Amino acid sequence: QFLYFIEILVSSPSMRRAQVLRQQVASTNPQWGRHRVTPLDEGIALDQRTLKGKTLFITGASRGIGLAIALRAARDGANIVVAAKTDAENPKLPGTIFSAAKEIEAAGGKALPVKVDVRD
């Protein structure tokens, strides 16, 4: 599932990197690679896959990589649950679940900010 999601996010120049990632995972665990990885060369074009109308629960989506993934998915029409440990802004790290939700909605998606600690 994770690698499938990576494939959706990659742009044309990065397709080779996604293929390398798939091969690395498949080589470390052939069973997983054989059943879960969906290679590009199976005839499924990236533009035929869509996140439109799908709901993604993204932890750490208030900033950094999580926010970048959420924004990309929002541009593809996904609904995003913005999950993070806190709803307060960190002085060293800008952004909250609420500011991320506004950015996601501006990018074309729907967002639900949720304060949650997945470590519990």
Automatic annotation (TrEMBL):
SUPFAM superfamilies attached to this UniProt entry: NAD(P)-binding Rossmann-fold domains
Coiled coil: none
Gene3D superfamilies: NAD(P)-binding Rossmann-like Domain
Pfam families per record: adh_short
Protein name from the UniProt record: SDR family NAD(P)-dependent oxidoreductase
